[in-house]
What we know:
Shape: globular
Oligomer: single chain
Structural class: mainly beta
Number of helices: 0
Number of domains: 1
Amino acid sequence: MLVLWDLHNALRLGELPQAHTGPVTGIAILPEGRAISAARDGRMAVWDLHTQSALTRLSLDVPITCMTAVSGALFAVGDSEGAVYTVELVGSWDAVEGPAPADPHSSPGSAENDDDQG
């Protein structure tokens, strides 16, 4: 579960209870009230923080152990097997392109649109 906080005013704003089924290993705040998260359940998600709902999800099918912003809408994620992938948010940042494996022997995951899931 991801919990949203207003740290300046020490207020709990809400939560994303269906965010991930495994521990969250990375999160980044995006422009326009959005965020991207990654977890050991092998999934990444782009969130609308205003509606507290998932805009899209991406499954790598292996546990994600880390995520970092590379530049702009480009992120690098590492999995439990030591592979590194690049993931790029495209369009209005409610769609994901990738992952593109850094290792040509790695297999990419699949993206799914989650407009009706939160």
